[in-house]
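Pilot study result, target chain (283 residues):
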Amino acid sequence: MSTLSTENLSHSYSIGTPFEQQAIRRISLNIGQGEFVFLMGHTGSGKSTFVQHLNALLQPTEGRVLFNGEDINRDKSARRNVKKHVGLVFQYPEYQLFEETVAGDIAFGPKNIGVPASELPDRIREAAEFTGISEELFSRSPLELSGGQKRRIAIAGVIAMHPEILILDEPTAGLDPAGGRKIMENVCRYQEKTGASIVVVSHSMDEAAIYGRRLIVFNQGEVYMDGSPEEVFSRSDELSSFGLDVPQAAKLAEALRNRGLSVPKSVYTYEQLLRAVREVLGC
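Predicted structure:
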């Protein structure tokens, strides 16, 4: 069972200069085995800085990051080792594709962490299957493919490392709705098959409502809310006060309540809204 936790984690940029800025402060969180977590917050709230600490890409100014109880920053060896277990997919990862072929790009991550060459073909095929990439594309240049295909290739390159915790920073940013749904469905399939923990940084409240099981809301570098979608979306006034929205279904439910329909405040997806309206109307 893999767990990832932070203890009083803080990070400042440009320390000792006039531009010094504290991005996150005193964050203590635990991400357990098999969780599906969405990190929400307005631009500049600290989400991306936080997740870059989770696989030692950034090192804390204060506090610790623990993987299975061990400090991932205790030495260089620990920082290298955590990357075998905690995979991070950056925002717009398709801009980081640079190998000549799709197969080469998917294989880059596993090779980097020491996966034997004999295992690479199976890793490539498995990751491609999870992300919906057909084998006929393996010999193609990734630069020839569509934006959605490039995004899936980049995600496959991290999945091929077999991370026990997969972190994705805005994985659907810039994609059309159909492409975004495909990405999220692939991520869900990976979790179902492997039991991995998933952490998604997102601005989309609708995505969080559909896929999230736990929502962590950042505000001004601190954790402001941490709970189920029902708990978080029930505090819509607070979310709005610092620039966040609520799912469209929740807005529609509120409008129906204002017109006198007894729709529960716990409604935040269209499926829930449809059931609630049918109950109210008796059909």
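One observation from the pilot: DSSP finds eleven helices and ten strands in the chain. A full batch analysis is planned for the follow-on phase.
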